[in-house]
Amino acid sequence: MTPEYVMTLGRQAIEVTLMLAGPLLLVSLLIGLMVSIFQAATQINESTLSFIPKLVGIFTTLIIAGPWMLSVLTDYMKQMFSSIATMAG
Question: Where is this chain's protein located in or outside the cell (predicted)?
Fold first, then answer.
């Protein structure tokens, strides 16, 4: 196994991780920003106010993007399992 191959595997793993976590983190960020703007406008200083909207937003995102996320993960795992023979020898 060459150093270039190891770097390629690491890069692919990071790409897949970012692709899977990106939508969830983006939704959480946007909902948190909207709740923060609402709290600043109404001067409500409750730290637990953003928890339920974020939870609903992430759950909705998982329902919508879940099949795509699952297919990306399974494709990556199939690629990793098929390349085990080249990694070993």
Answer: Cell membrane; Bacterial flagellum basal body
pLDDT per residue rounded down to tens, the chain (89 residues): 788 888 998 999 999 999 999 999 999 999 999 999 999 999 888 888 889 999 999 999 999 999 999 999 999 999 999 888 777 76
Contacts of 45 (CB under 8 A, 6+ apart): 39
| Dihedral (Cα; 37, 57, 61, 73), 10-degree rounding | 90
Determine the Cα–Cα distance for residues 87 and 19; give it in Å rounded to an integer. 24
Q: What ranges do the domains of the chain cover?
A: 3-88
